[in-house]
Design a protein that fits this description.
Distance between the termini: 35 Å
Strand content: 25-35%
CATH topology: 2,3-Dihydroxybiphenyl 1,2-Dioxygenase, domain 1
Bound molecules: zinc ion
CATH architecture: Roll
CATH superfamily: 2,3-Dihydroxybiphenyl 1,2-Dioxygenase, domain 1
Structural class: alpha+beta
Order of helices and strands: EHEEEEHEEEEHEEEEHEEEH
Number of domains: 1
Radius of gyration: 18 Å
Helix content: 10-25%
Number of helices: 5
Length: 310
């Protein structure tokens, strides 16, 4: 199961320039796609990833400058974790301290060193030291030295009161295996080098939060290609759930479904990928990409969007 795991994670943010400054200048990720929210073309959809824009590395944002901060609750993704080479945490502690990024003391979880920190909207993030990250090339355009740089996702935590169905979906559809369990957490993993781990935090009491900035809108898992996506979609139906039809996102094909635990899941194909809509590898993420049906309105759309520079 080397090609299974997290595909991308999508989040609501505040100001797009603040968001871009943090993910590109502070964390050293590459903006691999700048497009509009297809449901609200007056706003952006921004994608940051490793240098090649590989599946398992892209964190995406729907910036809404006027939105209120999300209030925490259960039935949602609580934490997004990035994978970094072993021995990187000290570098990052100095970097966060120097750039006024809020962070907590490192902890040890499932045998890995974890550095918790927060983005400008209060989203909880982590850096996790993992030898597997060293198999992924560092991006040479990063603001962070290669030996310490983020290579993509390590995984993500889901905080759930009702979790057995989600465990079944992750095992039977998404290609994960249950690896460890204790009183508070379940760890599920795949053999991929990126996006290979999901931790389910067992919440005792349901807590109703709110959406808003810093809220994880959905988490997407990998399908090899369109045939695999169709097979995975059928398995979701066989589990009694109601996925959408296949949706063409131009950089991948997608299916969405609500899980009984409360988190919105997506399944997305590995290809064609972010490079496919750029003029060249070098140009990836630079020009505003519009789906063909919005291209006739490019002038108007570009005028309404606040410029974002990275
Ligand atoms: Zn998505």
């Amino acid at each position: 199961m080397k090609d299974k795991g997290i595909h991308h994670i999508s989040i609501i943010s505040g100001d797009p320039q603040v968001n871009a400054d943090f993910y590109v200048k502070t964390l050293g990720l590459r903006m691999v796609l700048k497009t509009v929210n297809q449901d609200d073309p007056g706003t952006y959809h921004l994608f940051y990833a490793n240098g090649e824009g590989q599946p398992g590395s892209s964190i995406t944002f729907f910036p809404w400058s006027m939105a209120m901060p999300a209030k925490p609750g259960t039935g949602r993704v609580s934490t997004v974790s990035f994978t970094v080479p072993e021995g990187s945490c000290d570098f990052w502690i100095d970097r966060f301290a120097g750039k006024d990024v809020r962070f907590d003391s490192p902890i040890n979880r499932f045998g890995k060193k974890v550095l918790p920190f927060y983005d400008p909207d209060g989203l909880k993030l982590e850096l996790i030291e993992d030898k597997k990250s060293e198999a992924i090339p560092a991006w040479d355009g990063s603001t962070v030295p290669a030996e310490f740089s983020i290579r993509g996702f390590w995984g993500s935590n889901l905080q759930l009161t009702r979790f057995s169905e989600t465990v079944d979906i992750l095992r039977e559809v998404m290609g994960f295996q249950q690896t460890e369990e204790n009183d508070h957490e379940i760890l599920l993993t795949t053999e991929s080098n990126l996006g290979h781990s999901i931790i389910i935090e067992k919440a005792e009491e349901p807590k109703t939060g709110t959406s808003g900035t810093g809220y994880v809108h959905h988490i997407a898992f990998r399908a090899k290609d369109e045939d695999d996506l169709k097979e995975m979609r059928q398995k979701v139906i066989d589990m009694g759930l109601s996925p959408t039809q296949l949706i063409d996102r131009h950089v991948f094909m997608s299916v969405y479904f609500q899980t009984p635990g409360g988190v919105l899941f997506e399944i997305a194909t590995d290809g064609p990928g972010y490079k496919s809509v750029a003029e060249s590898e070098e140009e990836m993420g630079k020009k505003l990409f519009l789906p063909p049906w919005l291209e006739p309105r490019r002038d108007l759309i570009e005028k309404r969007l606040q410029p974002v520079n990275v």
